[in-house]
Amino acid sequence: MTKFHFAGRYNDDPKSLITHEHEPGYVPFKEAPTMNKLAVVMNSIAVVIAFVVLAIYFVLARAPLNMLGTLASIIALVPHEFLHAICFEGDVYMYENLKKGMLFVVGPGTFSKFGFIFMSMLPNIVFGFIPFIIFLFDHSNTFMGTLGAISIASGAGDYYNAYNALTQMPDNARTYLNGINNYWYIPSDSK
Predict the structure, then answer these.
(1) Which of 46, 136, 161, 162 is least surrounded by Cβ atoms within 10 Å, i.e. has the fewest?
(2) What global pTM score does this model have?
(3) Tens digit of pLDDT at every position of the chain (191 positions)
(4) Residue 20 domain-assigned?
(5) Range of the domain at 111
């Protein structure tokens, strides 16, 4: 059973995060080595994604962003993290550093390759892609279009994690967080 804890403001010290002990034979993901570099990568990806989905929105809607949809996308940031959290087993901790545009959860558990990709993508599917697809079928539904477009763009870190798992992990590997970084390993019963 998942237990959710609000851990407060992340202070840029990866050692302050609740993490998983390193597993034998662990391999670090090839990813940004520090939270500052990771934030730059994530924000850059988010800007590119936002440009694309907002361009689609404006071409199809021929209307400004829906204010309620914008507000809903901001409010959805916390439930977004809850959807990540329910995929973990045991204790999950949410951290924030709003000055750097960061809100994230960590936990000591491990995931299969598919499980990690699913955990990473679940909130983006629920708050981003489903509402945006609804908008694609009904261009007048600017609430769903705005909620979806902004939520899709705000999932940049999740896409980065899913991409890394997809391209770096063997199918029989498991992954876990240690500090701000992800690691994978092959369980001894899979060798």
Answers:
(1) 136
(2) 0.91
(3) 788 899 999 887 878 887 788 899 999 999 887 777 877 888 899 999 999 999 999 999 999 999 999 999 999 999 999 999 999 988 999 999 888 777 889 988 899 999 999 999 999 999 999 999 999 999 999 999 999 999 999 999 899 999 999 999 999 999 998 877 899 999 988 65
(4) no
(5) 2-10+26-190
* Through-space distance between the first and last CA atoms of the chain, rounded to whole angstroms: 29
Structural domain includes residue 167: yes
CB 92 within 8 A of CB 85: yes
CA nearest to 132, candidates 144, 150, 140? 144
Phi, psi of 18 (to 5 degrees): -75, 125
Q: CB 124: neighbour CB atoms within 10 A?
A: 22
Q: What are 6's two structure tokens? A: 């609000």
If one counts every other C-beta atom within 10 angstroms of the C-beta of residue 147, the result is 29
Q: How many domains does the chain have?
A: 1
